[in-house]
Amino acid sequence: MRPTCLNCARKHLAKALININESRLGYPAFRWLAIGHLSEAEDELLARYPAEANRIRDHRKAFEEDDKYIIPILEIIDDLTALFDRQVQEHNREGVLRSLLEEGSIGSKKPGGGIVRSEESEQSKA
What we know:
The chain has helices at 6-24, 29-45, 50-65, 73-103, 118-125; strands at residues 108-109, 115-116. It is mostly helical.
């Protein structure tokens, strides 16, 4: 199973949208390119976000059955963007906390794990 890549999934969804539009403009082979990109988007999400992968799969299967089916691709891209933004915020918050720990601004690590608050650290020095 490939590693999760939210940006890759969004890229494949964007390509699928372009190919769907081309297929509706009279180029039927582009429908299969769209289906392929939808499948790739699923694969990019399956390991870490199976619910999102299955959501795309359900839309892909409906589109395979009915080429007039409208897939809410921009909505899905927006949802993946929100998910990506939350991940970045969480990563940045963890990075800031790690930096503060390392510089001693919010305490230090206990020998067995956990965090010693600054005031605990001061008391142990006394």
